[in-house]
Design brief:
By secondary structure, the chain is an alpha/beta fold. Helix content is about 35%, strand content about 25%. The chain has a 7-stranded mixed beta sheet. Bound molecules: S-adenosyl-L-homocysteine.
């Protein structure tokens, strides 16, 4: 599923593109986006945990990509306050990988009260033709409810404003994650 997300994102990226990683976690997607947007592009990264910001900074430094990223140790629901005004309406891709930081104590998780406002902010930030991808996990406490809330939020979006799709593994061994993809119209 994460490979599929990258294929979808990559399709919308170009040299100089403005992008957002709404949940940097260990920084894999941040590094992926930074690499694809080139030296003139930008990735705005969000995470509420210092540990995640540090892991991401290390990963970016390893690939010499630090100067393409703007990392913020704050909630993604504050996206519109953090993004420079000129970028609002120009974001090509914004990715959410929900749940908890792998290898952490699982106490800090994304929650619908902040995830849904962040999704609204992300959709406002997008350029026409830009994409928001959301991977929601259902195996941890609160995860299934969060995934359902994301799907419900997406189902209610005005068709004139966004085209929305959903992908779900059908023969998964455990609780299956959900992928929701939103394209701004
Ligand atoms: N479940 C994924 C990884 C998700 S990481 C996997 O298996 O790979 C999710 C990240 O979201 C964590 O690092 C967590 O700290 C962060 N997070 C939690 N609430 C947040 C918020 N309001 N804004 C931004 N990041 C948040």
């Amino acid at each position: 599923m994460l490979r599929l997300v990258r294929l979808l994102l990559e399709d919308r990226l170009h040299e100089g593109a403005i992008t957002v990683d709404a949940t940097v976690g260990s920084g894999y997607d941040t590094a992926f986006l930074a690499e694809r947007v080139g030296a003139t592009g930008r990735v705005f990264g969000f995470d509420v945990q210092r540990e995640a910001i540090e892991r991401t900074r290390e990963r970016l430094a390893e690939f010499d990509l630090l100067d393409r990223a703007d990392l913020h140790e704050t909630g993604h629901q504050r996206m519109l306050e953090v993004l420079p005004h000129a970028h609002v309406g120009n974001v090509r891709a914004c990715t959410f990988n929900l749940g908890y930081l792998p290898g952490s104590d699982k106490q800090v998780i994304t929650r619908p009260e902040t995830t849904l406002p962040a999704l609204d902010a992300a959709l406002r930030s997008l350029a026409v033709g830009g994409l928001v991808t959301v991977v929601a996990y259902t195996g941890h406490p609160g995860g299934a409810e969060e995934a359902a809330a994301v799907v419900e939020w997406a189902e209610r979006l005005d068709r004139e404003r966004a085209e929305v799709g959903r992908y779900r593994p059908l023969n998964s061994a455990g609780p299956a994650p959900e992928l929701v993809v939103i394209e701004k119209q």
